[in-house]
């Protein structure tokens, strides 16, 4: 949970916890344990690198809500706007121009919102 808070921020994690119900408690626990307790907590890659990989995968797979969330998380991971741009250029070649086009739109809107 500490890693999740460090990457996504307390406000996001607090909202997610407040929205948990008995129906999705097991799912949320699985996410915390596997994604945040294992993958993100491992030091084989830096948080910046993990952030960039995550953004690329979310963009290529069209997971737009998660993409915006992880772009906002770059404020905590050290990935820059330039890093995001380069990752999305890579997505265009290996994941498809339409996926990258949508991801660039989401990234521009999200980064602009972060500047405010």
Automatic annotation (TrEMBL):
InterPro entries: 4CMD/NDH-1_regulator (IPR052512), AhpD-like (IPR029032), CMD-like (IPR003779), Decarb_PcaC (IPR012788). Pfam families: CMD. Keywords: Lyase. Its EC number is 4.1.1.44. Residues 26-109 form the Carboxymuconolactone decarboxylase-like domain. The keyword Kinase does not apply. One of its GO terms (molecular function) is 4-carboxymuconolactone decarboxylase activity. It is an enzyme of class 4 (lyase). The keyword Lyase applies. PANTHER family: 4-CARBOXYMUCONOLACTONE DECARBOXYLASE FAMILY PROTEIN (PTHR33570), CARBOXYMUCONOLACTONE DECARBOXYLASE-LIKE DOMAIN-CONTAINING PROTEIN (PTHR33570:SF2). This is 4-carboxymuconolactone decarboxylase. It comes from Roseibium litorale. The gene is pcaC.
